[in-house]
Amino acid sequence: MAHWLSQPLSWTTAAVFLASAVAMLLVVLLFVTYAIYFERKVIGWIQLRRGPNRVGPYGLLQSVADVLKLLVKEDVIPDRADRTLFILAPVIAFVPAFAVLAVLPFTETLHFADLGVGLLYYVAVSGITTLGILLGGWASNNKYALLGGMRSVAQMISYEIPLVISVIGVVLLAGSLNLKEIVAAQSGGFWNWFFLKQILGFAVFVVAALAELNRTPFDLPEAESELVAGYHVEYSGFRFAFFMLAEYVYVFAMSALATVLFLGGWHPPIESLGFVPGLVWFALKFAFCVFFLFWLRATMPRVRVDQLMTFAWKVLLPLALLNLFLTALVKELVA
Amino acid sequence: MAVRTEELLLNVGPQHPSTHGVFRLVVKLDGEIITDAQPVIGYLHRGTEKLAEDLTYTQIIPYTDRMDYLSAMTNNYVLCHAVETMMGIEVPERAEYLRVIVMELNRIASHLLWFGTYLLDLGAMSPFLYAMEEREKILDLFNELCGARITFNYMRVGGVKWDAPDGWIDKVRDFIPYMREQLDGYHKLVTGNEIFLRRLKGVGKYDAQTAIAYGLSGVNLRCTGVRRDVRKDEPYSIYDRFEFDVPVATEGDCYARYLLRMEEIRQSLRILEQAVAQFPKEGAVMAKVPRVIRPPAGETYVRIEAPRGELGCYIHSKGKDKPYRLKFRRPSFHNLQILPKLLIGENMANLVAILGGIDIVLGEVDC
């Protein structure tokens, strides 16, 4: 991929890019399909259930069947809804989810855009999804949806700040915003991975990322027991699928980002394991991150909305700033 | 341009995942703060008390199953107990023990379901399925005993309908240590959780005076420091033969109510342990009762401790085989009355924590 990216644009390179973009799309869609299956299985095991096991062998086709069902469902738009915004909202929520995938490096050579400010791009683009969720909640003209949308925006904006500040520590250590160079700075064994050097930053990152993803224990925007379903309560059929898709693509992207920033990307934990291809290491770390999210969902109750805000501004943000300060101090003293 | 704000009128229910049945709550919201709350009940009203006036006493028993459907055994008992009191029937020893065993098992099952659904309301999914697993074991025991899992129709005036099958008592005995172990597991999983504590501590607080003024009973009263349990204060059946504590707390918040209910499971297990140990080897399970039950003319009121509080039964008899007037004092209905007072000024997210903490069963609220 790196080779192709350095070539001047021609019909051949354009065709290669298009083909690899489609391949990536398929990989992500496949991931989403099986992430949902995996999530349901994992939670099933934790909860003494079997999880999906009826559709296809071991229930492997369950998600496929679910998506097909959503596809053929009637497309309902409420009478009082704001039609344009209602249709636009899922698209706005879901396009950035795919756009952020461009900058994620999976191995030394497998990546799509070698952007100098890759990390900044990720943070900026993923912020747009919030808008889609707010629009969805507003346009539905439903009280529960509005409350859900409002909560979601408040939450996502509050948590984006500690999230960004926590990764600046990594940027300081690596000396670059380029995700590839950040991974390169973590080579040579797991003690060089940033989750150790940036243990505080990593902790802040994990919590803020959970909130960004709207996942348990921060799944307030769709708090079923209070708001029924939150911002997407009026959505059905494929528009609903778009919101779900965006959510799971973000699980993919955030897990990949955590792997890249803190878990050493494609580097093996010790040098002597270098014969295993980098993609395998990446996939393993990535899978652990995804599992961690599902694991939390089966264990944690939900945070309350006002406590959520206090936590972001009074605990997480000072911690992130402290981490940044310490990192800068250590770097200055050591270097 | 000045920004105009409006109160938001929100209908929570009648179909809402956290109202646990058909209960409607009309709340007014200012942002996320509740400024007014008006419960609307009656969606499940079946007129049990009126219907009872046309039924013989034995025929009323299945109707009581459907009041507090999570604890049908205590409902069965309160009716039989009232009629037995009026007629002065002496219930055989073995039947009394069976009654206590099933009532305490039912109390545990009821609290387990409360625990599960409450955690579900707070957003934790797994405890619900763990609690259901244990409750299932109790329902299996009931199934073996009387052929029903929820609406038992087990007790009769003068005793119980079915004797315990062979080995049933042993199964109950085996259940006790198992349940204790599971209970410790729940505490490990839930009780220390920081998020959980923060959501419950200090939420839905009231003091003993308010609780008494609103006629609260059961855990909702005991959480304010009032040590009142009908099983201890006015022992009915054979409760005076068992050693058990009445757990109380003084905080009066949702967390105190949670801890008390969990502790009550432990106390019920203690009662079960003793009841199983003392269980008479043989004997009748039905007293000699006339074919047609005709309590003498007069009035009577009895009360017992149901899982949700004080369950009372008032019978006015004119000496016929049907009651002239029957009235149940359902704890859920009385406990619900404090809800609007607790909700006003609270955050919307506390709504489910407070409503769940009161522990109502809509079948009992509406009756």
Total number of β-strand segments of chain B? 8
Low-confidence stretches of chain B: none
Strand content of chain A: under 5%
Total beta strands of chain A:
0
Biggest interface and residues each: A-B, 28 and 30 residues
Shape of chain A: globular
Major β-sheet profile of chain B? 3 strands, antiparallel
User: How does the overall form of chain B come out from the CA principal axes?
Assistant: globular
Class by alpha and beta content of chain A: mainly alpha
Mean pLDDT of chain A: 85
Radius of gyration of chain B: 21 Å
Overview of the structural elements:
The complex is a heterodimer of chains A (335) and B (367). With 335 residues, chain A is an all-alpha fold. Helix content of chain A is 68%, strand content 0%. Chain A contains 14 helices and no strands. The two termini of chain A are 35 Å apart. Chain B is α+β, with helices and mostly antiparallel strands. Chain B is built from 15 helices and eight strands. In chain B, the strands form three sheets. Chain B has a three-stranded antiparallel beta sheet with strand order 1-2-3. In chain B, strands 6-7-8 form a three-stranded antiparallel beta sheet. In chain B, strand 7 and strand 8 form a beta hairpin. In chain B, helix 3 packs antiparallel against helix 4, helix 4 packs antiparallel against helix 11 and helix 5 packs antiparallel against helix 6. The longest helix of chain B has 29 residues. Classes of the chains: A mainly alpha (335), B alpha+beta (367). At the A-B interface, helix 7, helix 11, helix 13 and helix 14 of A face helix 4, helix 5, helix 7 and helix 14 of B.
